[in-house]
Amino acid sequence: MKQSLLLLSFLFIFSCGNKKSSNQKILSDSSGNINNLSVVIDNNLWEGNVGEAIRDVLAAPLDGLPQDEPLFNMSQIPPAVFSGFVTHNRTVFKVEKGGEASVKIASDVFARPQKLVLITGKTNEEIIQQIQENSQKIIAAFKSEEIKEKQRRINLSLHKNNNLKAKLGVSLNFPTAYRIAKEEDDFFWIRKDITTGTTNLMIFELPYNAVKKGDSLVDQIIKLRDSIGQAHIPGPTEGTYMITEEAYAPAVFETIIDNKPAIETKGLWDVKNAFMSGPFINYIIDDEINNRLLVIEGFAFAPSVEKRDYMFELEAIIRSLKIEN
User: Fold this and answer.
1) Exposure string (b/e) for 170-200, b if CB count within 10 Å is 16 or more?
2) Residue 106 to residue 63: CA distance in whole angstroms
3) What is the distance between the alpha carbons of residues 301 and 318, in angstroms, rounded to a whole number?
4) What tens digit of pLDDT does each residue of 23-41 get?
5) Which has the closest alpha carbon to 186: 116, 87, 290, 319?
6) Which InterPro entries match (predicted)?
7) Which of 108, 176, 201, 259 is the most exposed, having the fewest neighbouring CB atoms within 10 Å of its CB?
8) What is the CATH number of domain 158-323?
């Protein structure tokens, strides 16, 4: 009797272990281009006011670009065909009409890695309300997933540079396609050639009180950028250099970089006395432990093409920054 019970216990544990292992194998690798979102929703909802509310939030124009480009590209999928390989997209936004009004955010439901947002409501109005009231949370969930995926791809072929750590006490993960274009004292300019131009990073430090929050914050950031551009980022001819475009007011936000508070600025740059321009994203990081402000910026020169994905890569690189104490 004891032997039989022991055997049954062993078989139960073994089967549970196999079940767990089997469940882990069921989850396939996720797929999809960066910032491409699958929207699982009935056709009539997608074509009506619910679909309009989704597009207003998830396809809204991105801040800091010279032309309107959507936050995410979206592909609508009717629930009846959402099965098999179709469920493997890395980011999924699903709408179900009929249940209690709610927003649920889940990870690795059909594939790994994956972020799924489920919106439910008994009426169209309830669904729209959930989308609008939780828009920032939804965007943050998808964007975080895409940043992680972009960083994973970047990490497959990392540039080996130790001078950033030696001179600025930081590490930064950027691909081997980038090169160190300028290294002067504690200033670094890092560049990558693209089909129509370049993508760029610059990183340097400032005294701790060089920029102060207040009504003049935007003016301070513009003056800072212009002085750095004049000193370090020359234009195509003598006497030209990068400045902040005056006709476009930069957008300023608060964010976190490497668990430190930072000021994020998105706007447009141009070149003084020359016809060149493009978008930039700038971070001023409060590095109180090291008694300094650390500034890191990404900017792109890519005329006549869309720039969202170039700027997204630069942001993903910047968010890999680690500061030593």
Assistant:
1) bebbbeeebeebeeeeebbbbbbeeeebbbb
2) 27
3) 18
4) 455 789 999 999 999 999 9
5) 290
6) DUF4837
7) 259
8) 3.40.1000.10
Residues 319 and 325: their CA atoms lie apart, in Å, by 18
> CA 239 to CA 75: how far, in whole Å?
47
Q: Would the CATH topology of 28-153 be identical to that of 158-323?
A: no
Mean pLDDT by 10 residues, the chain (325 residues): 41 45 67 96 97 98 94 97 95 96 96 97 98 98 98 95 90 96 93 96 96 90 95 93 90 96 97 92 97 98 96 98 91
Q: What is the pLDDT of residue 263?
A: 97
Domain ranges of the chain: 28-153, 158-323
pTM: 0.89
Round to whole Å and give the CA distance between 300 and 314: 9
- In angstroms, the CA 320 to CA 315 distance is 9
Of 2.40.30, 3.40.50, 3.30.379, 3.40.1000, the CATH number of 28-153 is: 3.30.379
β 111-112/28-29 pair status:
parallel
Residue showing tokens 């513009």 = 222
Share of residues in the chain with pLDDT > 70 (%)? 92
Sequence letter at residue 196:
T
d(CA 226, CA 228): 5
Arithmetic mean of pLDDT over the chain? 91
